[in-house]
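[stage:ingest] chain + small molecule (N,N-dimethyl-L-histidine)
[stage:ingest] validated
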Amino acid sequence: MHPETPAAASYADELVAGLSATPRRLSPKWFYDEAGSALFDRICTLEAYYPTRTETALLARHADEIAAALGPDAEIVEPGAGSATKVRVLLRAMQRGGWRPAGYLPIDISGAHLLAAADALRADLADALPTLPVRPLTADFLQPLQLPAPLADGRRVGFYPGGSIGNFEPGEAVALLQRFRDWIGPGGGLLIGVDRIKDPARLHAAYNDPEGVTAAFNLNLWARANREADADFDLSAWHHAAFYSPAHQRIEMHLVSRRAQTVHVAGHAFTFAEGDGVHTENSCKYTVPGFQALAARAGWQPERVWSDPDELFSVHWLTA
Ligand code: AVI
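[stage:predict] done
[stage:export] C-alpha cells:
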C-alpha cells in the first residue's frame, strides 16, 4: 500500500491499472469491503492466525505499564480503528491508573461501521469513562488528511495495532510513520503492534489456514471485481498462494491462474497463462531492533517494547 496515493481511485480503475502493470499487482486496501472485512474478522479467530490473540493478550497483560507509558491527559488517535475493540483495554487501564484519558479519535474509511463502533464503545465505557469525548472521523487515512484541532491541552498519542504496518513496504512504512508523527506532534507517542520474524513454517501456516478462510479472503478480490468492476472472473479458475520470502522478510500473497484464460474488467481484456499470478499483499515481519531502526528513520524515538514468551509479536512504544 502507498500512504501518499494522490486521489481516491475506484476499484475498477485501480484493478485495470494493476492488471496492466508488470508485474501485476493490487493494493491490499481493496480486501476490505463488507464481505472481505467479515472474512478478516474470521481470520483473526483462527487457530493458525496467532497475531490477534497474541497482541490482545500482550495489551491485557501489560495494560497498566502501557497506560503509564502513554501518560496523562492524552487523546488516543487510532487510524483504521474498525470495531475499536483493542483500545478499550487501554482506556480502562488509563482511567484505573489515574492517567485521565482526554479523548478518543478513531479514523476509518467505513463511516457507518465507525459510527456504530463509536456508539458501542461509549456504551461499553459508560461505567468507567461516562464523559470521554469520542470523535469518530470517517476518512481514508492514506489520503491527505487534516485532523480536527486537538482537545484542550493538546497532547495526543497514536494507536496502530494488528501488525498492519507490515502491509506497507519498508519505504512506504517510513512515510506512513512520518505522517502519524505529524498528526501526533511533540510530547506525544505511538503504540504500534508489529509482527516478528519467526520460523517460516509458522508464518506459512498462518496464511494458509486449513479452513481456507485466508484463501477466501484473497479470492474475494475477484468476487468484489465481479460485483463492482463489471468483471467476469471465474473464481474456480484461480488459487490462493501465500509464502514467506526470506530475502524480503515478508509473506507474499498472490492469486494464481489455474489455466490459460482471458478475463474482462470494465471493458478491458486481460490474458493469463496457466501459473500467471497477481500480487495482492505483502505482510512484512520485523526483528525488534529492525523495527526500531525503521521507526527512527521516521523520527520516532523507541522507548519500550512488550513481547510474548514465544517471541511471536511485539508492541512498541515510540515517542515523538
Ligand atoms: C491486516 N493485516 C495485518 C493482516 C496481515 O496479517 O498482514 C492481513 C491478512 N492477510 C492475510 N491474513 C491476514
